Fold each of these.
Amino acid sequence: MRVVVPFAPDRPKTRLAPVLDEAERAALARTMLDDVLDALSTLDRERRVSVEPCVLSTAPVDCAAPVTVDDRSLSVAVNDALPDGETDDPVAVVMADLALATPDALADLFDPDADVVLAPGRGGGTNALVARDPAFSVDYHGASFRDHRDIVSAAGASLHVVDSYRLATDVDEPADLVEVVLHGEGATPEWLREAGFTLETTEGRVEVTRK
């Protein structure tokens, strides 16, 4: 299965600006990308699930997977990578900021044989998907999970929705760092701890602070 991992190294993770400067945000984004690629590699190696990851980047990047540079909008670039009807090979799209993704969580995405498999993100987004039907296309603007579900219905395709905490958790805002420090298993939580982030227990939700 081809796996497309979109990545934007230029001006990454701007909503984390209150807690990380630009160079730190770039380093964090790259670390999360490496964790996603490592989870895919482990799945291929240990679970015998054949995956062929490719990073779809807005600029050149040196990483542990082939890179296709495409600076067009995310929806346009991903749609060009989806099945076009000429082959039966499915295509998965896994976002580069899924710092909690594990081989088991990704296997839950790849295992269903529906025409389209969607892994929703918190707040209405789509964090990962598998497309087998060439009639399916993506539209990442707005509430993309709702829109993708409608696109599947209009195409008359079958749909499977993956209920996964690890795939639903993407890192965009400071509050998201709590989940990574608390539940992460890869290099990203270690990067955050080395940068001085720790958990703070309050009377309400657990928060993350930086020393």
Amino acid sequence: MVPAMMYALIDALHEAASAVKPIILTGSGASFCAGADLNWLASFTDPASGAAELVSVHHRAISTLVDLPVPVIVAVNGSTAGGGLGLALAPDYCLAAESASFTTAYFRLGLTPDGGATTFLQRAIGPARTRELLLTNRRVSANEALAWGLVNEVVPTGQLLDRAASFASSLAPVPPETLLQTRRLLDGGVLRHQLQLESDAIRNAARSEFFKSAITRFRETHTQD
């Protein structure tokens, strides 16, 4: 994740929504979304300014997903970490390939969650499991995510997009305002407030010596490589 990618995603979502059909969001390669690009963050003299820039547009992308007037189905094709969790959990329906996995990754950098993760995770798996994942940074497999209620379906990796398309085509038409109002009712007005709280918290965390040291270590390792 870098700002340019997030802006491109926002534009692509708006363009896709103009067709008035369900949207399928997926990744390419071995990852759905691995979170912030640490190479990009390491390019800043003050990486906290890069984190602030990224979280701002990242949250715009999350808000765009929940404000689209058509159903959004996410097809998680591989590993998902950090800010990628928000992109995976914000849509209306989540399919995961058997090869998919989920990890929070924030605490490794000394950062607080963003992208609505504090809302989406607690709703799906409860506060105890959310705290566990944040503390341990452990990888959750697709089948465990299904058992916990983090995703709706797990399908063979090679069948992921076919199943997503099949599910999308099976949906009955729904008026845009009905869909939007229903999302708001289910949300209870929490997400927008939480995004602001997350934004403030991660900006503060990114100013810490822990985060600066983590980025410095990454930069030194990357330079050696």
Amino acid sequence: MTEKNNDWQMTRRGYNFYEVLSAFQKAIRRGDGKLAGYWALELYDSGFETHVWNRLRIIACEDVAEPITREIEALKQSHDFVNKGKKKGEPNKPGRLMVAKATLLLAAATKSRDADHLICLVYEDNTIAAETLLADLEAAKGDAKKEIPGYALDMHTVRGRKMGRNNRNEFLKAEHHALKPRVPGIFDEELGLK
């Protein structure tokens, strides 16, 4: 894999954009609405609102078992309506509420990664690694700047790849185990969960 230097894209509090995007999705997978909301608003307030909405749509398809895409699209339409005429990056845009609501809905939703597993395990015919890597999520408290959690540094980030976290099968299995709440999936046997 070609190494990309993405360190130049930083959020307003000095985070690497790609690491925050990863932490955002993984907090939703783990059902942590508070931390997911922190990362969502960090991205949004840093001028990455298009990326936030794109990621919310991806999460609705990739990580959530419930048919929730209509709710996310309705919130996006409401966001666009209340922000009509507002400048990108304007502080306290009313659309932040819709981002927060979409984030909380996805964090509370029942999870399943079957769509992603279908692509990776069936179509691309990969085998499942025997070992599972689970990262512990440390509770971040107060208004202090949050740390990028270790589980966010994976094969999708520069630091994660430098740490040797390149095994997609281990990634798939670890992220599946991290879903909260989780329903049984049709690929549980292939992931060694039956």
